[in-house]
Design brief:
Number of domains: 1
Order of helices and strands: EEEEEEEEEEEEEE
Radius of gyration: 15 Å
Number of helices: 0
Shape: globular
Strand order of the largest sheet: 1-2-3-6-14-8-12-11
Mean pLDDT: 88
Helix content: under 10%
Strand content: over 45%
Structural class: mainly beta
Largest sheet: 8 strands, antiparallel
């Protein structure tokens, strides 16, 4: 069950070593499960209410004996309730809100591996990962119709562990 934030906006959903919040608005978290490991990724069920970029807030919880610090396997299952089809989808890591992640912050989409066998989507055929000077992951060559959902799998590494970081999500819509 989600826990209401002290500011009254959104909720914090707990899974594994992290909590996830829709407190910045524009989308709703509908479910969260999993521990964040490769065999049991955190599965985040979301509903995006517009085609505007939205930002997920991720907070680290107190470490446990079974937690490998700085590793989060994540599956985002996003329902397109924006009224527009999506033709691509961008994720961007931010250690400071509204500022792309930088080289020195330790946050990345599995920067230690040139190719990643954990990056995939059921609706997009390929991805483009930009690691410097920011950390962005764009899914391409596909589409998601309105009222349909899609899933994205990827690994987030945080080798300078932060108490809070952000995941910008930006669905691309066809040009008019």
């Amino acid at each position: 069950m989600p826990v209401a934030n002290a500011n009254g906006l959104g909720h914090q959903w707990q899974a594994g070593q992290y909590s996830f919040s829709d407190e910045l608005g524009g989308f709703l978290i509908r479910s969260v499960s999993g521990t964040g490991t490769r065999s049991d990724p955190v599965v985040l069920g979301e509903e995006l209410e517009s085609a505007d970029p939205v930002t997920l807030t991720i907070r680290a919880r107190q470490p446990t004996a079974n937690f490998i610090e700085g590793i989060l396997y994540l599956r985002v299952v996003a329902l397109n309730n924006s009224g527009h089809p999506w033709v691509d989808f961008l994720f961007e890591l931010q250690s400071v809100l509204d500022q792309p992640s930088t080289f020195g912050d330790g946050l990345s989409f599995d920067q230690t591996h040139t190719t990643s066998d954990f990056i995939s989507s059921d609706s997009f055929a390929r991805y483009d990962r930009k690691l410097e000077p920011f950390d962005r992951l764009r899914f391409l060559d596909g589409h998601v119709d309105t009222s349909h959902q899609t899933s994205f799998d990827f690994l987030v590494t945080d080798f300078n562990p932060k108490s809070v970081f952000y995941l910008l999500q930006d669905p691309g819509i066809p040009a008019s």
